[in-house]
Amino acid sequence: MSRKGHFNAAHRLHNPNWNSEKNAEIFGKCNNPNYHGHNYDLIAHVTGEIDPDTGYVIDMKVLKEIMNEEVLDRYDHKNLNLDFEEFKSLNPTAENIAVVIWNRLRKRLENHLQLTVTLYETERNYVEYSGE
Amino acid sequence: MSRKGHFNAAHRLHNPNWNSEKNAEIFGKCNNPNYHGHNYDLIAHVTGEIDPDTGYVIDMKVLKEIMNEEVLDRYDHKNLNLDFEEFKSLNPTAENIAVVIWNRLRKRLENHLQLTVTLYETERNYVEYSGE
Amino acid sequence: MSRKGHFNAAHRLHNPNWNSEKNAEIFGKCNNPNYHGHNYDLIAHVTGEIDPDTGYVIDMKVLKEIMNEEVLDRYDHKNLNLDFEEFKSLNPTAENIAVVIWNRLRKRLENHLQLTVTLYETERNYVEYSGE
Amino acid sequence: MSRKGHFNAAHRLHNPNWNSEKNAEIFGKCNNPNYHGHNYDLIAHVTGEIDPDTGYVIDMKVLKEIMNEEVLDRYDHKNLNLDFEEFKSLNPTAENIAVVIWNRLRKRLENHLQLTVTLYETERNYVEYSGE
Amino acid sequence: MSRKGHFNAAHRLHNPNWNSEKNAEIFGKCNNPNYHGHNYDLIAHVTGEIDPDTGYVIDMKVLKEIMNEEVLDRYDHKNLNLDFEEFKSLNPTAENIAVVIWNRLRKRLENHLQLTVTLYETERNYVEYSGE
Amino acid sequence: MSRKGHFNAAHRLHNPNWNSEKNAEIFGKCNNPNYHGHNYDLIAHVTGEIDPDTGYVIDMKVLKEIMNEEVLDRYDHKNLNLDFEEFKSLNPTAENIAVVIWNRLRKRLENHLQLTVTLYETERNYVEYSGE
User: Which of B10, B72, C103, C118 has its CB 3.0 to 4.6 Å from that of C37, i.e. a possible disulfide?
Assistant: First the structure.
């Protein structure tokens, strides 16, 4: 059972251990100090056994609530670098955001279920993370 | 080689071993006794060796015919609960429909090919099944 | 300002003034007496002057509420023929559903705004209605 | 001839003539002082006579260059409120951004051509502007 | 009532009244003498009064047949320049192909219906034609 | 990190060891001697460890350059059968094109990264290849 959602957020890529020339060289336009933004699309894929009573792997309404509480309502219309502890010292690349989201969703799911998250930064660029 | 198709069908989620309160609580709007419907999108993914004579894993025209006969023409514009034996005692959740479809397609494919089916109930919810 | 939403519903095309042969001939698979279903996608397009204080033609949150109350929550997971007065004597073709939806939304919008609705019955078939 | 492009940008909705309570009430999450972002999708529609020598209304490569220079390269990975004169005193709602883009493209096109721009703020919300 | 279909075809843009330098300059990669191809997506939009007996503007099954016979089956897997009289002396730009398709469909529709065709050459480039 | 691109190309399916009847029977419309075309969509999926300095698995700008040089600029607006050595004796089915693309991209990536390519021949048909 997979479910799609999205959130709009601003971010900036920056490594505080590098000078501004190196940051500009490596991160290019993504290093703009005034921040820029994305419509992130998130897909959570939950796999496991089908429950014989309900015919569900997971109730889609439950998955929807977890995604809204842990990710979509939390990050929507926010600035990832400025508004959240988790990105104070972690560069908000698509790769790192996906790992953070995976950890937030994973702790809310029953143990027998497996989770993969796919995060689209744009329609043409996306990352996938399954927990290791 | 993967191929996409779709069918429109009505269904209702209901467990006959539960009373109507429990059915309403678990299945919510999907328990509406007058049925409701979906445009199901189906993707069949067939993997295997490339045939050196044709350059094909499977001829797409053959896969199209099998999908039409076993799934798309069979279920299109039908009521899953009322019109088919296979859902008389099996709740037509996306998960269970995907398992039924996988079994119908699997028996029509040559043994050396592997099959995965992806079934979209809506653009935002889908399930995947590979045979176990 | 245009906004997209969707709802799942079952329907059946049938003209009570015709016998069953004529109904089957004209409406084909859509005449199946057990109903079938669609994931309808609806786009409401609202045009007018930009309000100089807000920069909005219409506040998207207001349009979202109107669409949810008048259409999406009302028809979602329902049977159009059985559950609604408006389709007791009106055949629920895409064309007629679009006219009904236009009338429901129109009466909730301020007079100086214009409205067009686009209704997708499937990804390949859709209708558009602007009020005459 | 219509052509699609996109750009990522941060923005914030705010009316400096209102106090912060009124701004929060009217603009909701879009008023977040740390900015948030969008992947804007832009479609430029150019209509006119077909040139008998080329068979073109407008050479798509020319339209692509104009869109890149005037809009896509200009706004991509930028903060609309902070980085551009044109939004210093104009609220960057989708409606106002579309008007600004229309004016930038219009002045680059030959007089006998007509222009409409469609701007998607998200997949579900978009605006259209044809010059009045 | 609008309906979508598609066809794959090869083409080459070339004006026989120009020398090869001018053709290369104006048409660029599209002038490749070995031909190249597109997956064309076609949308036919038919508007008119709703028939009170059927609830249809036009029966979608009829529109589907006309599109298949006049356009989709005719051009699919063909070379537009080499295989068809209509493009022997008419450059197969998206604009000109849309006009040809409009004329083929128009003559098959009843007089009281209006027709617009939208032709996508790629996901990012498309043209629209309504008959003048 | 996955990235999407596309190219338009003409091709023809043909096995020179078979006579024209057998070629027509097996490859159907795809055997048209005048060639036909496709808008191919390509997704390159690159997986591996996240670099702690950058937060990247691979810099998307680098992946974009490699895809453009090895595949998109190379094949766009070309005839696969006539314009390239690699398809002189290899039938350009979607399966074989995907293998060729995988080999071209693989040699440009660092050894610790894994690569999968997905190639869409049409919206409904696609193939996937991971290197064996």
Answer: B10
Mean pLDDT of E9-15: 94
Average pLDDT rounded to a whole number, residues C93-98: 94
E36 touches chain F (CB under 8 A): yes
Among F56, B84, E83, smallest CA distance to A13 is for F56
DSSP secondary structure letters along B1-56: -EEEEEEEEEE----TTS-HHHHHHHHGGGG-TT-EEEEEEEEEEEE-PPPTTTS-
pLDDT at F127: 92
- Three-state secondary structure along A8-59? EEEECCCCCCCCHHHHHHHHHHHHCCCCEEEEEEEEEEEECCCCCCCCCCCC
F11 contact E CB<8A: yes
**F50: which chain A residues are within 8 Å (Cβ-Cβ)?**
93, 95-96, 99
Q: How many alpha carbons lie under 13 Å from residue C4 in its C-beta half-sphere? A: 13
Catalytic site includes residue B30: yes
Domain boundary assignment for chain A? 2-8+39-129
Tokens standing for residue D123: 């997949």
Residue written as token pair 């005193």:
D89
Asked if D27 and D95 touch (Cβ cutoff 8 Å), the reply is no
Name the residue type at position E108.
Answer: R
What CATH superfamily is the domain D2-8+39-129? 6-pyruvoyl tetrahydropterin synthase/QueD (3.30.479.10)
Please, what sign has the CA dihedral across residues A59, A65, A68, A71?
Answer: negative
Query: Which of A4, A45, A50 lies nearest to residue B95, judging by beta carbons?
Result: A50
CB of E13 within 8 Å of a chain D CB? The answer is yes
| pLDDT per position as a tens digit, A71-85 | 999 999 999 999 999
pTM of the entire predicted model: 0.84
Angle CA(E90)–CA(E92)–CA(E93) in degrees, nearest 5?
A: 120
CB contact under 8 Å between D93 and C53, yes or no, is no
Residue B72 contacts residue B104 (beta carbons within 8 Å):
no
3-state secondary structure of C78: strand
Q: List all residues 6 or more positions away from C108 whose beta carbon is below 8 Å from its beta carbon.
A: C66, C70
Q: Which two tokens stand for residue F119?
A: 């190639």
F117: phi > 0 → left, psi -120 to 50 → alpha, else beta; which? beta
The pLDDT score that the predictor gives to residue D125 is 85
Q: How confident is the prediction for chain D on average, in pLDDT?
A: 93
